Amino acid sequence: MTFEDLGLSPEILQAVADAGYQTPTPIQEQAIPYVLMGRDVLGCAQTGTGKTASFTLPMIDILSTGRARARMPRSLIITPTRELASQIADNFEVYGKHNKLNMALLIGGVSFDEQISKLDRGVDVLIATPGRLLDHFERGRILLTDIKILVIDEADRMMDMGFMPDVERIVAVLPKIRNTLFFSATIPPEIRRVADKFLINPKEITVSPDISTAETVKQSLVVVAAEPWLKRDVLRLLITTEPVENALVFCNRKRDVDLLNKSLLKHGFNAAALHGDMTQPARLETLQAFRDGITKILVASDVAARGLDMPKVSHVFNFDVPNHAEDYVHRIGRTGRAGRAGRAHMIATPEDSVFLDAVIKFIGNEIEQIDVEGVESASMSDAPPRRGRGGYRHRQEAKGPGKGPGPRKSPRKRPVAARKSSPAPDTAPTAAPLASATAASKPNETAAPKIPAPRQKSPPKKQNTEEPVLGLGPNAPAFFLRPDRSRSS
Ligand code: AMP
Predict the structure, then answer these.
(1) Rounded (5°) CA angle 294-297-299
(2) How far is the CA of 333 from the centre of ligand 1 (A)?
(3) What pLDDT, on a 0 to 100 scale, did the predictor assign at position 306?
C-alpha cells in the first residue's frame, strides 16, 4: 500500500514525500482511511509505530477546509507530557508545511501571554497538556465548543500520571458530535472504560507493540547488592567498557535522576538530566543538546522521556528496574530504532525481584544476566523477606542477606553466563583495565579488585553518598569528558 492509496490530499502527499517516507506504517495504513471517513478510532499503538502521523495526516486534510475563529480551536490533541506535545507540534509542522493551518501549543512552563495571543489569532490545531488547557479554559481564555476532532494520545500514560480526571473534565465540555481518536500503548480494562465513554462506535486498531524494536536490541541484566553507590559504579563501568556513542539512562524517580546526573558529571562524564521538574525551556534545550550530540548521556525519568523520538541512541541503561513493566519496553525501544542494533542494560538489585519478574513476564523472555568485571554480582534470591502482601520490607528494617525466610522464588537461572571477564583476582590488575582502574584508585586494596559486599547496618554516612573511586577508566572514550563549558548541575 502507498500513501496515495490512503486518500490523502496532494499537499500532504508532498509533505510525506519530503519527509522521505516511502510507505505507510501499519497504524497509518489502518487508521488514516477511517479518520478521513469521520469514524472514531481506538488505536492500541506505541511510540515508534508512526502513530503520530496516523492522526496528524488525516487531521490536516480534514482541517484544510474551513477557518478557525479567535479563541475557538477546531481540533484538540491532549497529551500527557510537554515533550510529547512539542514533538506532535514538530510533526504538524513537517506534515502541514504545504497547508496553512494555525497551531498552538498549550503546555506548562511557557508564558501564558504568548499562548493567549496565539489563541486570539485563531487556532486550527491545539496541542495541550491537560493542566495548562484547563488553566486557560477556567480563565475564560478559550472556548472549546468548536472542536471537531479530539485526539487523546498516550491514554495509559495519562492515567498513570493521574491526569484522567482532568481529561474527563475537558471532554465533558466538548461538543458531543466530534471525531475522537484515542491512542494508548496498552488497553487494560480501566482504559477501555474511559475509551467507551469518549468514543462512539470506534474502529479498533491494534498494531503489534514496539517489541519488534527489541529484536534489534541486545538486552542484559546486571544484579548487584542494593547500594546506590554500587549501582553507580556498575553504570560507569558499563558506559566505559561498552561501545557507547550516546546513551539514555533511566531512573524511576526524579530525585535519583538529579543525583545520578551529578554523580556522572562529577566523574567527568558528559551528562545531563531530564525530568518533569525542570522548566520547559530547560527540558527542550537539554533534549536538543542530546539530539545534536552535544550531550552524550541523558539521565531521564520515564515521564520526561516517554514518547520521545530519538533515532540514534546506541545504549539504554536502566539504572532502576521500572515499576511498570511496560515502561521497560518503552525505555529499551529508545535504542535499536530504524533497524539499527541497540544495547540495553538493566541494573537490578535483589530488592527489585518483583518488578523484574513483572518485566520478564511482560516481555515473555528472560534477560541475559552478565557479570561486570570488578563488581561482585548478587543473586536475585538475596531479596529481603517480604512483609504482608505488598512490597519488600524497608531497607533499614532488613536484616541483610541470608536472614529471614528468604525469597519468593528460587534463584534466577542465568540463561547464558556471558561473563565479561573472569580473571583471577591476583592477575586482574594487569590483565584488565577496569580492574586495574579499581586497584589503582584504591591503594589500600591491592588484593582483590572486587567491590566489597553490601554494608550491613549503619554504614558511615560518607560511604553511602560518596562515590567510590572508580570512575573513567584509562580506556574511556574521550568524548565522555565534559565539554569545556562545564554544566552547572
Ligand atoms: P511515532 O510513532 O509517531 O513517534 O513515529 C516514530 C518515527 O517514525 C518518527 O521519527 C517518524 O518521523 C517516523 N515515521 C512515521 N511514519 C513513517 C513512515 N511512514 N515511514 C518512515 N518513517 C515514519
Answers:
(1) 125
(2) 14
(3) 66
